Amino acid sequence: MRGRWSSLAAAALLVAGSLLVPAGPALAAPAFKVPFPCGQSWSGQTRSDHSPAYAVDFNRTDDLGDPVVASAPGTVDRVTDLGGTSYGKYVRIDHGGGYTTYYAHLNGFNVSVGQSVGYGRVIGWVGSTGGSTGPHLHYEQRLNGNDIQVRFNGTLALYWGTKTYTSDNNCAGTATGTVNTAGADLTVRSGPGTGYAPVGSVADGAKVTIYCQTSGTTVTGTYGTSSIWDRIGTGRYISDAYVYTGYDGYIPNVPRC
Ligand SMILES: [Zn+2]
């Protein structure tokens, strides 16, 4: 009796299992984003001799100390310093569903274990710790602990080779502004002030995406006097005194740089 009962119970469990947990694909992957702030462009390299193979190494000019951000919401489950070997200082984020991301060779940490993070949360800074020969971010996506091919917004990274990836991570907080100079082009500066080097210009009437705002040199322009500067790209700032945003001061929901 016992044996027969057990086999019946096992059959019932199998049926129940097949009803409750249908065979099929794993939970959908999170919508992973490029692990850098909105609007930044980074060169991402994959190579077959990388360890693990599907990791991406990210670089850009003068990247030492640049902020690294969470590529999807989750819970930080490792903030570890391996010293002069391997990943060096690294963070792991658990995104649920078996998905984790790794951020290695960091210069420093900005999160702690157990912390919940959302898109765009700064978790640390680009460094060259551990087994690294120069500043870069070593980034991985894993499923159930296994290295998987990296995807951003569901799109496969380039395997193998080097490609520029532009971040749309946490871009929900951007705004659109309209440049109004009453004629002349508006000078774009490398930082939030008239003392920063000119790095280009935008035409009167141009629409610009404002990624963040910060305070800088006080400027009197079309819309009065303001010390607010708008970042409209990587290392590109314009005075808010010449930009119609619909707001006199800081724009709600747009982050401070
Ligand atoms: Zn690497």
Kindly summarize this structure in a few lines.
Helix content is 7%, strand content 42%. It has one helix at 2-20; strands at residues 41-46, 56-59, 67-69, 74-81, 89-96, 99-104, 108-109, 116-117, 122-125, 137-143, 146-148, 151-152, 155-156, 161-166, 175-179, 186-189, 198-202, 207-210, 212-221, 224-233, 236-239, 243-244.
Q: Key features?
A:
mainly beta, 9-stranded antiparallel beta sheet, 1 helix, disordered N terminus, binds zinc ion
Q: Please bin the fraction of helical residues.
A: under 10%
Structural class: mainly beta
Major sheet attributes: 9 strands, antiparallel
Distance between the termini: 72 Å
Q: How big a fraction of the residues is strand?
A: 35-45%
The count of DSSP E runs of length 2 or more, i.e. the number of strands, is 22
Low-confidence blocks of residues: 1-24
Shape: elongated
As a whole number of angstroms, the C-alpha radius of gyration is: 24 Å
Order of secondary-structure elements: HEEEEEEEEEEEEEEEEEEEEEE
Number of helices: 1
Overall residue-averaged pLDDT value: 90
